[in-house]
Amino acid sequence: MASTQAWERAAQPMRGTKKKPPGATQRSSNGRQGMFIRLSPDYKQRAEYWADKRAFSSVNEYVAEAVIEKIRRENLDYDLPTLEIARLNELVDQVAALATNSANLERVVTTGFDSLIGLTRGDNYLLDEEDGELT
User: Fold this and answer.
1) Please, what is the angle between helix 59-74 and helix 41-53, to 10°?
2) Interior CA angle at 20 toward 16 and 21, to 5°?
3) What is the pLDDT of residues 89-130, one digit of tens each?
4) What is the DSSP annotation of the chain?
5) pLDDT digits over 29-73, tens only?
6) Is the dihedral of CA 46, 47, 52, 55 positive or negative?
């Protein structure tokens, strides 16, 4: 019996000595699988910043959530009205600001040309004689 147990232990690789094939994943106790990713130092720093700002327990949790969100967007399974309405509201605000700027520019140009035409005709209020009275 002791020899059978020894033979079974010898047949199984020692923990940590078996190499995983490339792309292999690890399973955790909650059924999730682990994976290895590489990020540039800039993106890693940004991921750490946002993970901390959003109060994730780790950067890995943040990256897992980001992957899930990206997959949902690829599958067109996201809150469409919220994203479109936000973008549409932004565009409406920009168009309203552009219209206001255009109206202001039109008013300034019109007033400027009216002043120049008035000066050339000589009927500008600045050319009137003063009578010493303040009105």
Assistant:
1) 100
2) 165
3) 999 999 999 999 999 999 999 999 988 888 788 776 666 677
4) -HHHHHHHHHHSPPTTTSPPPTT--EE-TTS-EE------HHHHHHHHHHHHHTT-SSHHHHHHHHHHHHHHHHTT-S-HHHHHHHHHHHHHHHHHHHHHHHHHHHHHHHHHHHHHHHHHHT--GGGSPP-S---
5) 677 788 888 989 999 999 999 999 999 999 999 999 999 988 988
6) positive
What residue has token string 């700002």?
53
Q: Please report, in angstroms and rounded to a whole number, the separation of the first and last CA atoms in the chain.
A: 120
